[in-house]
Request: fold
Amino acid sequence: MITHYDAEEDEQHACGCPIPNDKRKPAGCIQVEDVQMNNMMLGVEDVKVTWWNGWFTFKTTSTDGAGCWSIDRHRERGKAYMWVTFQNSRAMLRGFVGNTAKLWRLLLPVTDYRGQLGGGSYHNIQIDYNMWNNQGGSDHRTWSASTVMNGIHHFHREAQNDGINTPPSGLDIYLTANRRDGIALMTSQLPQQTVNDLVGQGLFSSGLLPYIISNNSILAAVPDVAIGCNFQNSDQQWSVTQHELAHTSHFTNAGAIFWGRLGLATLNARIATGDPWGDEDVFDAGILAICESWAEHLEHVYTDRAYNGFPTSINEPWVDRLDRWRNDSPNHVPIGIHLDLFDNMEPPLSFDREGGGSGLVVDNVTGLTNGQLFSVLDAATDDPQEYRQRIINDLLPGSGIAVGDVDALFNSY
Reply:
């Protein structure tokens, strides 16, 4: 929806952005509806606005943290055209192919063409991306892209606050309308031979990738990250974004060779079990266990920080659900281990998420931080037992934490 307001009635946009005195100076705000935050409209941060006068003048700017934008040093004299593009130095979002008539979306960033603007008043343009109704439609595409983009900026801030690496710049992220999972292949960061190995072993025919790709000749279309967008709850869309961004952050510490191993392990697990995480017996189960458990950890912790105090779609705080989980499946992917290394709370029983068991987690460990834990998640830490040893060797000296307490905690998993 796009709305023009009369500046003589208010000195700010409805979203709090300043209104230029000159009605012909293009300015406005871009917002997205957050369902969990009582349908509050939040500014869409750092997306590109392009303005064209229909002749030879193109102007671009970006929204700030509140979704405000303005085209400086420009005064529009006639009709104009406007686009919103979901791209910045951190990420380019593309996707929502839809059908063969829209395959260009496979390669180009998500762009919302706002149409022709006229009437002589351009200084108070408000764009609201409300919750979608038509799956795969323009409202679905723009709401999802807005929510994911805000989630990316949230992850960067939380990572900086925690002292962990932020994701690589310029991530190529594909959004898909009909899935709820994701994958972080980091293909642009991998050696070509590693990508060729993944192709040769059937990655694109395995059903593992949540988007359309038909042959190896269009590898340029393969993104670093894919994120499913079949959500009508803001926190759910937020959570899958945090999960995949956690992988990209981990990549910066572990490196391309390690990530190639993870890709092959994921592929083989899918082939062997039908599940990309597999079980404790799949090839290279340890690397799957450490990578997916860390991403689940940050997914829940960072989503909890964003929605703390608001009703969630899971009917409890995200970090409380994490605290109740032990493994994803018996003896595999210790989802709760990272939180247990720094919290001081433990429920009477913790449960394996996919069933198979529950038990008492002996947790007398507290005081470690996300930043400390991340520091030992490098290429040498490729299974939970190596993780335990790195914590003991690198983090316990001078901490006051007993080795026996760390061993007891890990043994509970």
The longest strand covers residues 27-34. Residues 268-413 form one domain. Residues 1-10, 206-219 have pLDDT under 50 and may be disordered.
